[in-house]
Amino acid sequence: MALTTNKTILDWLDEQIKLVNPKEVVWIDGSEEQLEKIREEAVKTGEMIKLNEDLLPGCLYHRTKPDDVARVEDRTLICSKKEEDAGPTNHWMEPTKAYKMLYDIARNSYEGRTMYVIPYSMGPVGSPLSKIGIEVTDSIYVVLNMAIMTRIGKSVMDALGDSNDWVRGLHAKCNVNAEERWICQFPEDNAIISVNSAYGGNVLLGKKCFALRIASYQGKNEGWQAEHMLILGLENPQGEVKYICAAFPSACGKTNLAMLIPPEGYKKKGYKVWTVGDDISWIRKGPDGRLYAINPENGFFGVAPGTNEKSNYNALASTKKGAIFTNVARNLDNNTVWWEGLDKNPPVNAEEWKGAKVNGPDYVAEGNKLAHPNSRFTAPAVNCPCLSSEFENPNGVPISAFVFGGRRAKLAPLVYQSRDWNHGVFVGATMASETTAAAAGAVGVVRRDPMAMLPFCGYHMADYWQHWIDIGKTLDPDKAPKIFNVNWFRKDDEGNFMWPGFGDNMRVLDWIIQRCEGKVDAKETEIGYVPYSKDINLEGLDMTAEDLDKILDVDKDLWKEEADGIEEYFVKFGDKVPAELRESLATLKSNLE
Ligand code: SAT
Ligand code: MN
């Protein structure tokens, strides 16, 4: 039975049913009873495997097709009426053509299958910052993941009422044929269609498709921002909490930073980090003139490899019940999971991520990976030991700082602060990072990834930069978040990381907050404000101020090359590049003269 009488939804649903022709339609009401039945069915059909009920209660295992393991950026389209509106960084298709192509692919593809209708809310149900979507899918995996990653069910439909302000999402697995895989966003229609994939970001339509691509476009028109940013709260010994939003490309450690455990010295003094979100922020100006952020998601879709007790205790703890594991390895002795970096003991009796039975230690010794590098856990946020008490706050949390960062073996210092908002937008707009396994394609290539939004901005990237500049104009400079850039990934000439990262990143966050509070001086350099090494707390670290100076160093020659690279990059955007960003570039160049 339909969970709503909203005519805009029922009419749309009729069209989808006619198109894909399912054997039955099931509305997901959000009840545990219904979800449990669906889990049982998934286990019966073999789509999911139930893991050890004592060690991993309520946890399921799933593997995707081997050619369906990451987002596919060259098959992700922005279908705005005008190509110009998608801009030079997006793949574009004219909407009528795209609809026809997609309908032809999806037609009758649910034959003999169940259509699941998932009403979901991005953000706390009923919050003024939240938005609602409907995803129809023929994948149980999608239903169970959406049930973790978003708020689902009847209450969402009640919150929407008769409104037409909801995002239409059609997902059709079809034959999971890579040649006909398309992830299409129609920003002007509030619509998403995804065909021939059954993997994460391609099919959990609330996540990148809605909460970033569609939402970024909505934000531009409605005066708010959808950003690829984690949100964390840093509590000082006096119990005051300051919030930071940080943008990093996929698989660059957002989840780790969001759940950071401070080093001993900080812990003893009473510092704590609270997680509000690990991937996406929706940001709006509050009544007091400050920017407030919510995390639109309800769970974590984190990269498994590298996650362990030490690197991210809190993430690991979050996966211990009610989680879904995708494309990791299985330990057949105790029916649990394993991935590279979990511990040093690959299971002897193992099943690698494609399902072959192998001897784990031998297999790894031969240079193979038991888990796919982009294998993931889907974990309910409520499991997280350091989840912020503000997680459900419908008004969000006030932001003190924006932090941009990427993987750069050279160039970018450990941390620097922009001179002001507009310069900060320049820093974000020109950030670059080495590519990771989160998207199909080469790994380790430096590419520009503005605000970590390159694959996620639903409209013209230069208009998006302009939106950032325009938001800044509405903010009182005293209330505007300060903007920083960090780089945990600097390497020395031997290729060793120069900064320990993980929990020790707290030392950098500490400096950032002190800067926001005007409590510490900084050195003005060609690129912005860099810390004096004495102001970064190294207590308990095997590192001297001289070591630190090496990572704080601004190499003028490298930066001159960088400035040339930015100039070249801007050419792509023609006269759409905001004047403020050109000014920042000119200042950078003249500073480096
Ligand atoms: O596959 S997802 O887009 O959900 C995760 C990521 O790439 O950040
Ligand atoms: Mn992400």
Q: How would the blueprint of this fold be written?
A:
Blueprint: H1 7-20, E1 24-27, H2 32-45, E2 49-50, E3 60-62, E4 76-78, H3 83-86, E5 91-92, H4 95-106, E6 114-122, E7 131-137, H5 140-149, E8 151-152, H6 154-160, E9 166-172, E10 182-186, E11 191-195, H7 200-203, H8 206-222, E12 225-227, E13 229-235, E14 241-247, H9 254-258, H10 264-269, E15 272-277, E16 281-285, E17 291-294, E18 299-303, H11 313-318, E19 324-326, E20 329-331, E21 336-338, E22 350-351, E23 357-358, H12 360-365, E24 376-380, E25 397-405, E26 415-417, H13 421-429, E27 432-434, E28 446-448, H14 461-473, E29 482-486, H15 506-516, E30 523-524, E31 529-530, H16 545-552, H17 556-571, H18 579-592
Parallel strand pairs: 1-6, 3-19, 4-5, 4-10, 7-9, 9-11, 14-25, 25-29
Antiparallel strand pairs: 2-3, 6-7, 6-8, 10-11, 12-16, 13-14, 13-15, 16-17, 17-25, 18-24, 19-24, 20-21, 20-22, 22-23, 26-29, 27-28, 30-31
- Counting helices, strands and paired strands, the structural category is alpha+beta
**Residues in β-strands, percent:** 15-25%
Mean pLDDT: 97
**Bound ions, cofactors and other small molecules, one mention each:** sulfoacetic acid, manganese (II) ion
Poorly predicted parts: none
DSSP summary, beta strand count = 31
Distance between the termini: 70 Å
* Sheet with the most strands, sense and barrel status: 9 strands, mixed
Q: How much is the radius of gyration in Å?
A: 23 Å
Number of helices: 18
Percent in helix: 25-40%
Shape: globular
Briefly say what this structure is.
With 593 residues, the protein is of the alpha+beta class. It is built from 18 helices and 31 strands.
